[in-house]
Amino acid sequence: MFGSILYLKNSIFKQKKGGMKNIEYYDNGELDKFLISDCEVCSLLPLNKKIVYGYGNKKPEIFMIIESPSKIDILNNKLLSGPPGKLMDKILLAIKRTRNKSVYITSLLKYKHENNRNPLSSEISCQIEHLNKQIKIIKPKIILILGNVVPKFVLKKENKIDELRGKIYNYHNIPTYITYHPISLIKDEKLKLLVWKDFKTIQSNLDNKYLYE
């Protein structure tokens, strides 16, 4: 795809307090912006500046997908922000990973419509195409889907999340996992043990132990 080589090889340096920061392997929304700018459907949407772009390591271990940006995400202009994001950071740290070094986070839908109307099927198809292009360009080791909405459209799985988690799926020949969104853990702490088991399985896969039980 046009632009993918430049995207992967582009080396950028920004001046920060305390010295130069190399963000050669960090995406701050560039890939999402490129894909959306190349889409006729997206260009026609009345988005009212509510787009929240994906971000993270360009060569991640984990490609994390959520349904859409929350109100807090829109306010902070960052996916998985606020309390859910802090909880996710703790979970990642527990499996010896960090968001900046190990993860690329994106959403199936990049925006919220006025009055939060449901997206059209054409919009969903467009976003799935974007998602597939992202995966092919980034080539993560593992895909992790948070919540029970994305599996319906991406994996064509209609089951409830408690039936979907705990298994390994194949999406673009990449091991794919499904677990609860951290907001669910905040609402129901009983789910934390299940999510911890899912992340331990992911850790085993990433550490080449392949313990899937």
Characterization of this structure:
- The protein has 213 residues and is of the alpha/beta class.
- The strands form 2 sheets. Strands 3-4-6-5-7-9-8 form a 7-stranded mixed β-sheet. Strands 1-2 form a two-stranded antiparallel ribbon.
- Helices cover 42% and strands 17% of the residues.
- A hairpin with a 2-residue loop joins β1 and β2.
- It contains 11 helices and 9 strands.
- The relative contact order is 0.14.
- It has one domain: Uracil-DNA Glycosylase, subunit E.
- It has helices at 4-9, 30-37, 40-43, 71-76, 82-94, 99-102, 121-138, 150-154, 161-164, 182-187, 192-206; strands at 13-16, 19-22, 26-27, 55-57, 62-66, 103-107, 142-146, 169-171, 174-179.
- Mean pLDDT is 82; it is low at 1-23.
What brief labels describe this structure?
213 residues, alpha/beta, Uracil-DNA Glycosylase, subunit E, seven-stranded mixed sheet, two-stranded antiparallel sheet, 42% helix, globular, disordered N terminus
Brief characterization of the structure:
The protein is α/β, with parallel strands linked by helices and 213 residues long.
